[in-house]
Amino acid sequence: MNNTPDTDDQLRRTLGIGRRRFLSTCTAVAAGAIAAPAFGASPVQAAPRPGGEHGKGQVLVPADKRGIILYTVRDAVGRDPQSTSLPSGFREVFEQLARFGYQQVEFAGYGQHANAPGGANLESVEGAKQLRRWLDDYGLRAQGNHGFIPGSWPLSSTDLDTFKKHLEIANILGMAHVGTGGDPTGSAYKADWDVAADKWHALGELARRAGLKLYTHNHDAAYGFLLDGGPLDAQGRPTRSSGIRKLEYFLSITDPKLVWLEMDIFWAHVAQYKFRTYTAHDGSTQTDIFDPAGLVTRHDKRYPLFHAKDGVVNATNGMGYDMVPFGTGVIDYRTFFSRVGHRNYHSPMVEQDNAPSSTSPGQSLEHAAIGYRNLAALRR
How far is CA 132 from CA 78, 94, 141, in A? Predict the structure, then answer.
């Protein structure tokens, strides 16, 4: 998206921010590479920031695959339109995201401020029909939702009815996928992942019958090492690992026609930093560096969705990174998307958990605009 000075000023006024702050933020997008930490399968460095939509080289993320999860702009969705001139509620946020250039969105629930058109809760058939009209008005496609996945197993009749309602809403919205923002289980033990696989197979079959792909969105803990052998603890649980990571085990025991995944690339790189060694069954300490792009490459068709989230190095917070607007950090997205390939299959959703600001009401939409520009600028 090439912006002239006039359109930049229009964007700045829409977001309710001063010219100096707007320019300083945009300057950060084009900042040079930041020194990478000495961890990971290969050094993680900031890719050069090609200028504009029409830069040289193959576009890594086609225009119709560029999306954003609405969690990034949740403050705007939940804002009272009667208290501000900033975009507020689903309809106005959709309009703004479409202006930036986005063509896809991922929901993080269906709630907004009560004063926004449609009312507070659109988690219903009628609410979904209203959301679909707005999506169509602005040329947006809903790709998925971080919604309801039953916690209990076996499924209760109430949970089953609620899940089926979410499948119906997803179909009204035109989604291809339906999922959750959480891991299949928080456990480190093989037996619990086996149970999780049974539940996800059952839910995945229901989704398949509804024409949808059921997906799980994963954080760093899911890439820790599975405890599956060695001496047992006082509760009879294994204490050591074969070296397989929890999510890799889940992939190996689930049906690829029923269970899909959404990699949050930021959290996968956090896992690369955190989970480097394990205690083998024989008691020895083994080193294994996680390769996020390698995992996707081995299971490429099981990853229809990504979260494209960026970070800068922070060796003091236990994670290795602090979140920043997409394209202004050090995670090498050019290499990642080049390695995983299938650019017309994967749909990256820009995300920034900390985009909303209590002191700068327009910040989350401002950062959404920056994220789109940098996603569009990625070239091989």
Answer: 18, 11, 9
Domain region containing 336 = 5-377
Query: Angle 69-258-65 (CA atoms, 0-180°, nearest 5)?
Result: 30
| Paired tokens of 144 | 């998925």
Structure tokens at 206: 């229901």
Total domains, the chain: 1
The whole-angstrom separation of Cα 125 and Cα 376 is 34
Calculate the alpha carbon distances from 66 to 141, 156, 334, 347 in Å: 10, 37, 15, 6
Q: In whole angstroms, give the CA distance from residue 126 to residue 186.
A: 35
Instruction: Check whether 190 has a pLDDT greater than 90.
Output: yes
Distance CA 306, CA 123 (A): 24
* pLDDT over threshold 80, residue 222: yes
Quick one: tokens of 306? Answer: 């990504």
Determine the Cα–Cα distance for residues 113 and 274; give it in Å rounded to an integer.
38
CA nearest to 312, candidates 320, 300, 304? 320
pLDDT at 210 over 60: yes
Residue closest to 293 by CA, chosen among 65, 9, 15, 41? 41
Four-point Cα dihedral 320, 277, 199, 171, nearest 10: 30
Residue 338 has pLDDT above 70, yes or no: yes
Cα–Cα distance, 377 to 310 (Å, whole number): 15
pLDDT for position 152: 86
Region at 318 (left for phi over 0; alpha for psi -120 to 50; beta for the rest) = left
Q: Provide the pLDDT for residue 38.
A: 33
CATH number of the CATH domain containing 300: 3.20.20.150
